[in-house]
Specification:
With about 425 residues, this protein is α+β, with helices and mostly antiparallel strands. It is built from eleven helices and eight strands. The chain folds into three domains: about 100 residues, Butyryl-Coa Dehydrogenase, subunit A, domain 1, CATH 1.10.540; about 110 residues, Butyryl-CoA Dehydrogenase, subunit A, domain 2, CATH 2.40.110; about 120 residues, Butyryl-CoA Dehydrogenase, subunit A, domain 3, CATH 1.20.140. Bound molecules: flavin-adenine dinucleotide.
C-alpha cells in the first residue's frame, strides 16, 4: 500500500465535507415552488449541475471504485457525507435508479469498457441511467417477458415494449432485458442490453399518474439496432444480471443502498410526511387516539432505520444472504402504507376532498391514492413475501407450470 492509498478517517472526511458543502453547495430553499406536474425538466437540469459540482469538488461516487471515477470509500464515509449534506440541495434524483440500481449492476456484471464508460459518466454528472424491465404484460413475472432481441450479423435487433420506466425521458442509457432464445426455458433465454434511450426506433411516451406526475414512461421498440458490445454479461445469461439488478433495486427501495448520496427523494414536490405536523394542522394534536397513531408511525420509522442497518450490514458481511434485501423492501412498503393511512385518518373528512386543490387535505388524499406505488416499485410486496418465505425461511416453492418448459411452448394470456 502506498501513502496515497491510505483511506481517510471518517471523521476527518466528515469535517472536510462539511467545510466544502458550506462553501460550494446551495442551501435548501424552504419556499421553493414545485414545478408544474409533468414539467420537471428544470429539476433535471439542476440535478446534473449539482452532480457536476460534487464531482468537481471530489465528493461524487463515494462508494464506487476509483478506477471508475469514484472515491473508493466505505458506506460509513457515505453516511457521514449524507448527514452533512442535509441542509443543502443535492442531486437526489440520481440516487434511484442511476446510482443505487443501474451503476452497481454494471459494476457487478458489466464489461470493463461498460464500467469505465457508463459509471464514470454518471459520476461526472454527464449521463443518467434507467431500467427497461417491466412490460405491459406484467412485471412480477419478469422472466416471462416477451420483448425480443434477434441477432443480425454483428448487431442485435430489438422489438417489443416496456413500461413503468421511472424518469426514462430524462435518461441517456437503459438496462434493457430481452428474450434472445425462445427455445430455452424462460429464465435461460434472456439477455441484458445497455442501450441508448434515444436510439432510433424507440418511441417513448409519458404516463400520467393520479398525482399529476408524468415521470413514468413507456417505450415501444421497432427494430432498434444495438451493437454486440451492448450485451451486459453473457448472451442468454441475462437472468443472472437481472437478479443482481433486482437485488440492488430491493436494497435501494428498502433504504439500504451504500450508493445513495444525500437524503430524501429530490422532488421539490415531496408530499408532507410529518404526522405530528399534520395533526397540528388539523387541530387534532391533543386527541389521544391521534397521538397514538403519530407514536405508532414514529416507532415504525425507528424500527425501519434499525432494520435497514442490521440487514444491510448482514448482507455486506455475508451473514445474511442477498434475498434478505426483500425484508427491507417489504418493511418500506408497510411503513409507507402506515404513514399514508394514518395521515388520512387524522385528516378525517377533510382528506376526501379530491385532488383538484393545493390544500394539505387534498395532498394527503392524493398520497393515499399513490401509496399503492410503494408496494409495487422494486417488485411487489407479494413477491417480496414470496422471496422471504421461499429463499429465507425455506418454505416450499410456488408452483410454476412453465418451469423447465421451452418458452415458446408456454401458454400465455387467457
Ligand atoms: C414507483 C415505481 C417505480 C417503478 N420503476 C420501474 C422502472 O424504472 N423500470 C421498470 O421496468 N419497472 C418499474 N416499475 C414497475 C414495477 O417493477 C412493477 O410494477 C412490479 O414489478 C409489478 O409488476 P406489475 O405492475 O406489472 O404487476 P403484476 O405483475 O401484473 O402483478 C399484479 C398484482 O398481482 C400480484 N402477483 C403477481 N404475481 C404474483 C405471485 N406469483 N404471487 C403473489 N402475488 C402475485 C402482484 O403482487 C400485484 O399485486 C415501477 C413501479 C413503481 C410503482
Amino acid at each position: 500500500m502506498t501513502v496515497t492509498d491510505v483511506i481517510e478517517d471518517v471523521e476527518a472526511f466528515r469535517l472536510r465535507a462539511r467545510a466544502w458543502l458550506a462553501d460550494n453547495m446551495p442551501k435548501l430553499d424552504p419556499d421553493a415552488v414545485p414545478p408544474a406536474p409533468g414539467d420537471d425538466d428544470e429539476e433535471w437540469v439542476k440535478t446534473r449541475e449539482l452532480q457536476k459540482k460534487l464531482y468537481a469538488g471530489g465528493f461524487a461516487g463515494i462508494c464506487f471504485p476509483k478506477e471508475y471515477g469514484g472515491l473508493g470509500l466505505s458506506p460509513a464515509h457515505q453516511e457521514a457525507f449524507s448527514q452533512e449534506s442535509e441542509p443543502y440541495q443535492m442531486p437526489l434524483l440520481l440516487n434511484v435508479p442511476t446510482f443505487s440500481i443501474c451503476a452497481p449492476t454494471i459494476l457487478d456484471m458489466g464489461s470493463e469498457q461498460q464500467k469505465r464508460d457508463r459509471i464514470s459518466a454518471a459520476i461526472r454528472g454527464d449521463e443518467i441511467l434507467v431500467q427497461f424491465l417491466s412490460e405491459p404484460s406484467g412485471g412480477s413475472d419478469l422472466a416471462g417477458l416477451i420483448t425480443r432481441a434477434e441477432k443480425d450479423g454483428d448487431t442485435w435487433v430489438i422489438n417489443g415494449a416496456k413500461t413503468w420506466s421511472t424518469c426514462a425521458y430524462a435518461a441517456d442509457w437503459a438496462l434493457c432485458l430481452a428474450r434472445t432464445d425462445s427455445d430455452a426455458p424462460k429464465h435461460r433465454g434472456l439477455t441484458m442490453f445497455l442501450i441508448p434511450t434515444k436510439a432510433e426506433g424507440i418511441d417513448m411516451r409519458r404516463i400520467t399518474q393520479v398525482n399529476g406526475s408524468t415521470e413514468f414512461c413507456e417505450e415501444f421498440f421497432d427494430n432498434v439496432v444495438v451493437p454486440a458490445d451492448a450485451v451486459v454479461g453473457e448472451v442468454n445469461d441475462g437472468w443472472a444480471v437481472a437478479s443482481r439488478q433486482l437485488f440492488h433495486e430491493r436494497t435501494a427501495v428498502g433504504g439500504g443502498s451504500p450508493y445513495v448520496s444525500g437524503r430524501g427523494t429530490g422532488r421539490l414536490s415531496t408530499p408532507p410526511s410529518d404526522l405530528a405536523e399534520i395533526a397540528r394542522a388539523f387541530g387534532r394534536n391533543e386527541d389521544e387516539a391521534v397521538r397514538e397513531l403519530v407514536g405508532e408511525s414514529r416507532a415504525q420509522h425507528v424500527v425501519q432505520d434499525q432494520l435497514i442497518r442490521r440487514v444491510s450490514q448482514g448482507i455486506e458481511s455475508g451473514v445474511m444472504p442477498g434475498p434478505a434485501a426483500s425484508i427491507m423492501r417489504l418493511f418500506h412498503a408497510e411503513t409507507q402504507w402506515m404513514l399514508d393511512d394514518h395521515a388520512i385518518t387524522i385528516a378525517g373528512s377533510g382528506g376526501v376532498t379530491g385532488k383538484d386543490n393545493q390544500s394539505l387535505a387534498a395532498q394527503l388524499s392524493v398520497n393515499y391514492l399513490m401509496r399503492q406505488g410503494s408496494s409495487l416499485g422494486g417488485g411487489s410486496t407479494e413477491m417480496s413475501r414470496n422471496i422471504i418465505s421461499e429463499r429465507l425461511l425455506g418454505m416450499p416453492r410456488e408452483y410454476a407450470a412453465d418451469r423447465d418448459v421451452p418458452f415458446r411452448e408456454v401458454k400465455r394470456g387467457r
